[in-house]
Amino acid sequence: MQLTGKTAVVTGGSRGIGRAVAVTLAEAGADVAIIYAGNTAAAEETTKMIEEKGVKALAIQCDVSDEKAVATMMKTVKKELGRVDILVNNAGITRDGLLMIMKEEDWQAVLDTNLNGSFHCTKAAARLMMKQRCGSIINITSVVGETGNAGQANYAAAKAGLIGFTKSVAKELASRNVRCNAIAPGCIATDMTAVLGDEAVANMVKNIPLGRVAQPEEVAKAVLFLASDDASYITGQVLNVDGGMVM
Hints:
The protein is of the alpha/beta class and 247 residues long. It is built from nine helices and seven strands, in the order βαβαβαβαβααβαααβ. The chain has one domain (7-241): Rossmann fold (3-Layer(aba) Sandwich).
């Protein structure tokens, strides 16, 4: 699964799943632009990790919920790296809370980043991919988007919306040889799950047939497959990387 000569854009790419994806794509030969919200130190560290793979790296601070900022960001990637072949919509936040006490701003913030951000980035990247007549868009959704989860109505709604968005985009762009798929991770060892605490994670593991939490690199390898030409006849699909949580 070689990506030599291709350019990837990874949102939320400074740490966690995004960092693992960026480094994995770089190992396969792709130049990588990581898009981050505010953690400059983490972004710089990830950039160095990418460059160590012998490819070009670019870090851009951008609020993906801002359509104009995203358009500017994508133009910068095109100018600096020449093209956009792969887009990984990974940027995401949580603002958990039970429905009856969830604040409007917490609902909106999650949808703005997790769903609207993917819309903005996909729209901007698709313009370039359609002209190239090739491209792969990979949306990082979640098993929560398939099952729902108490205390995460906003997150589940955004991730479920992303699944429908993936299928619609796949149908619209297929004639231009642009593919769009989604990956639904389960319980992954990231900063987002670390805040849940050991007891909560242990309870989640009880419902995972493989009996363990996954590493970000295991999600990244699935992204690599969908980004590569080995997946040239796959579009509009949701690949669960969840140890069997959802069957």
